[in-house]
Specification:
Elements (H helix, E strand, L loop, with lengths): L5 H13 L1 H7 L5 H8 L7 H11 L5 E8 L2 E11 L8 H4 L3 H20 L5 H16 L5 H4 L8 E3 H7 L5 H7 L7 E4 L2 H13 L2 H16 L5 H14 L9 H25 L2
Parallel strand pairs: 2-4
Antiparallel strand pairs: 1-2, 3-4
Helix pairs in contact: 1-14, 3-12, 4-10, 6-7, 6-13, 7-12
Length: about 280
């Protein structure tokens, strides 16, 4: 197909995912600029710009920021802020003390350690423990699933000034500038007390731990596009331990999923062209 066309992009993306030999050869090279940027984070004051960049990559941070339809004014788009940042499905996985949850937390810690080991990061075991401890602190003020389903409780319209005052340790104005949302004035905050509680977590967590947290989020997000060791580690924890999947899907099926996730509209056009003349 012509270079730059949607058809060519779909084919190139599928082919690049299927080129497992090149993936193994490249290793972590494609992520090195991101790893260096995370390593340069010196204090919590650097977090807003780091989190804004992470969001552009699709990485988790403690604050989920999106632009979408105002739930109470469907003709308006508005910035919405929600709790986020947990690598396990929800807060209960961190806070419940029954044997099953404890077993899952241990497996999660081992998974993080394995990614750090594969990436040749310093102190993999210590870093994994610190990441889980940080996520536990993030989980403590989060709302449970039932409360999060309440459409009235989760609709709290605020100004940027109000949000900034609630979390003085985190520069929300700096975040919005870095995220390209500097013109936003009104926001919907889904869990306002979580936002306020995160102030002490942001201020009290050492920069080293934030670096480890963001490094893990980067490796976890891209594990399926990295060499086989990362793919296998992610499958064994996220698919097998958490979801009970017994075997990893063939690479071609995962390549199809990759295309669907990144170029789904373009791939859909090709499908329609072929099957709906």
């Amino acid at each position: 197909a012509p270079a730059g066309s949607e058809r060519r992009k779909v084919g190139d993306l599928y082919a690049s995912y299927m080129d497992s030999a090149r993936v193994e050869t490249l290793g972590l090279t494609p992520l090195e600029p991101e790893l260096k940027a995370i390593a340069a984070l010196k204090s919590p004051a650097d977090l807003p710009s780091a989190f804004a960049h992470a969001a552009r990559l699709g990485l988790q941070t403690p604050f989920g920021v999106s632009v979408g339809q105002d739930p109470k004014s469907s003709s308006v788009n508005i910035v919405q802020i929600s709790q986020s940042g947990l690598g396990l499905p929800d807060r209960d996985y961190y806070l419940r003390q029954d044997p099953k949850m404890a077993e899952t937390r241990a497996a999660y810690t081992a998974y993080i350690e394995r990614l750090f080991t594969l990436a040749k990061q310093p102190d993999p075991a210590g870093a994994a423990s610190r990441v889980v401890a940080l996520e536990t602190e993030i989980a403590k003020p989060q709302w449970d699933r039932a409360k999060n389903r309440d459409r009235d409780l989760t609709y709290n319209k605020m100004t940027v000034t109000t949000v900034a005052a609630a979390t003085p340790a985190y520069d929300w104005r700096g975040y919005f500038r870095a995220a390209g949302l500097a013109q936003a004035s009104d926001l919907v905050v889904r869990q306002p007390d979580y936002l306020k509680a995160m102030n002490s977590v942001v201020a009290g967590t050492p920069a080293q731990t934030w670096r480890e947290y963001l490094t893990f989020k980067l490796l976890d997000h891209y594990a399926d596009e990295l060499p086989s060791g990362f793919q296998q580690a992610q499958f064994e924890f996220r698919n097998k331990t958490l979801n009970g999947q017994r075997e990893m899907s063939p690479r071609w099926k995962r390549a199809v999923n990759e295309v669907e996730g990144i170029l789904g509209e373009a791939a859909g056009k090709l499908y329609v062209e072929r099957y709906f003349t």
